[in-house]
Amino acid sequence: MFYFFCSLAIITTLCAIIHTNPIHMLLYLIISLLSISSIYFIIGAYFVGALQVIIYTGAIMVLFVFVVMMLNLGKITEQKERKWLKSSMWVIPTIISILLLIFIIASIITTNHKSINNKIFDAKDIGISLFGHYGLLVEFISMLLLASLLVTLHIGRKNNQGKLVK
């Protein structure tokens, strides 16, 4: 099951990158995030898997769908994305990805400390850490997400010559 969900996550992520229709791309990304949460459930990280489903797959992807619907993307966007998906545009990102993969594999192989800490955190410990020590950072990120939503609304209105997006 682990290998099935890993391959499903990789395939749907690649489909999300390659696909030109924004709604289909978001659906592929949702499947990818759900398969990643399934991997968390398989390895026993139930709390992280539940957070993955609730926060990323639930809240953030729904926000992305609303933004795409608000921007009212159409055929013009698909034509631009098809130009971006030419093979010549993939050279530099592919080289960077291969270098990052080599670096990650080398760091995993050369590490001396190969044990995983099996300390179990409950929701109370995570909540205290998140809203105690990192409280200001959490609030800053929420303000950043709100500001990005407002900018997206402004861009959506600007592309329609000041008309409200329907």
Would you give an account of this structure?
This protein is mainly α and about 170 residues long. The chain has two domains: about 1-75, Four Helix Bundle (Hemerythrin (Met), subunit A) (Up-down Bundle); about 125-165, no CATH class. Helix content is about 80%, strand content about 0%. It is built from seven helices and no strands. The protein has helices at about 1-20, 20-40, 45-70, 75-85, 90-110, 125-135, 135-160. The longest helix is centred in the middle third of the chain and has 26 residues, at about 45-70. The chain is globular and about 50 Å long. The termini are far apart. The mean pLDDT is about 80.
Query: What is the CATH third-level topology name of the largest domain?
Result: Four Helix Bundle (Hemerythrin (Met), subunit A)
Question: What is the typical, i.e. mean, pLDDT?
Answer: 78
Largest sheet: none
* Helix percentage range: over 70%
- CATH architectural grouping of the largest domain: Up-down Bundle
| Contiguous helical run count | 7
Structural class: mainly alpha
Q: Rough shape?
A: globular
Low-confidence stretches: none
What's the N-to-C terminus distance?
A: 43 Å
CATH structural class of the largest domain: Mainly Alpha
In CATH terms, the superfamily of the largest domain is NADH-ubiquinone/plastoquinone oxidoreductase chain 6, subunit NuoJ
